[in-house]
């Protein structure tokens, strides 16, 4: 926790086992049904074991274990010393990915939802993990802080997702890797229409094939790669050294 505190550019207090840079009176913005769900203690309880594995397998056909292996390989965690998992939820990726880091390394899970972070501390803590509460649109870390930065299954929920992605790039070190898993609107027209309609109703954003590929390229990242599966896309890139 003290190592993480030294990485922060804002003061933080310890609350429920995580570092909080927002303060007790600051509530997570939740204007949509989907965002309200992510701030629900009930959803936080069932998310890791039931909600997330089931919904993402239906959306992509990829199991949670396969996702973890793909993420670890894409982020090159064997050579990384610091990892930032943005919108980490209950730490369902932060914890397993931290185990793939070398001794003395650090995985920071970052989220705005207090119920999610409480579950993360309870279920996915370890000697290489620390959790921080804050707003991903203004990451409280200096430029070029982390060797690897990721965001899995959350950008379509977050207000100003492109601003969040640019913040992720900002805190990534030269030579570091970035990886995101998010929605993909590339299906045949009838399916695409149904996906967009449903997404609007519950407050999700559907991104097209070029959205993050172009954002990463325009930001100067290299080795940009994209995989699409059903309604999800996995995009990775490297920040030049």
UniProtKB/TrEMBL annotation:
Q: Which domain of life is it from?
A: Bacteria
Every copy of the Methyltransferase type domain together lies at: 84-180
Which UniProt keywords are given for this protein, alphabetically ordered? Answer: Methyltransferase, Transferase
Q: Per the record's keyword annotation, is DNA repair included, yes or no?
A: no
Provide the transmembrane region boundaries. Answer: none
One function term, GO molecular function aspect: S-adenosylmethionine-dependent methyltransferase activity
| Pfam families named in the record | Methyltransf_11
**GO:BP terms for this protein?**
methylation
NADP as a keyword of this entry, yes or no, is: no
**Which InterPro entries does the annotation name?**
Methyltransf_11, SAM-dependent_MTases_sf
- The signal peptide annotation in the UniProt record is none
Please report the name of this protein according to its UniProt entry: SAM-dependent methyltransferase
Name the species this protein comes from.
Mycobacterium asiaticum
């Amino acid at each position: 926790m003290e190592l993480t505190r030294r990485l922060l550019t804002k003061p933080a207090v310890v609350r429920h086992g995580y570092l909080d840079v927002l303060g007790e009176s600051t509530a997570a913005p939740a204007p949509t049904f989907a965002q309200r769900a992510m701030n629900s203690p009930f959803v936080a309880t069932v998310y890791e074991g039931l909600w997330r594995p089931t919904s993402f397998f239906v959306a992509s056909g990829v199991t949670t274990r396969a996702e973890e292996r793909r993420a670890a390989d894409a982020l090159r965690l064997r050579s990384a010393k610091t990892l930032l998992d943005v919108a980490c939820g209950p730490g369902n990726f932060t914890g397993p990915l931290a185990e793939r880091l070398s001794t003395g390394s650090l995985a920071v899970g970052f989220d705005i939802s207090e119920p999610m972070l409480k579950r993360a501390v309870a279920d996915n803590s370890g000697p290489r993990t620390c959790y921080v509460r804050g707003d991903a649109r203004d990451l409280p870390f200096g430029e070029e802080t982390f060797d690897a930065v990721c965001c899995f299954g959350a950008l379509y929920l977050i207000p100003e997702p492109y601003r969040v992605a640019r913040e992720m790039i900002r805190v990534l070190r030269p030579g570091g890797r970035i990886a995101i898993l998010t929605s993909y609107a590339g299906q045949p027209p009838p399916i695409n229409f149904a996906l967009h309609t449903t997404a609007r109703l519950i407050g999700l954003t559907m991104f097209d094939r070029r959205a993050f590929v172009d954002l990463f390229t325009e930001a100067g990242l290299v080795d940009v790669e994209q995989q699409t599966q059903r309604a999800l896309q996995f995009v990775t890139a490297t920040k030049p050294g």
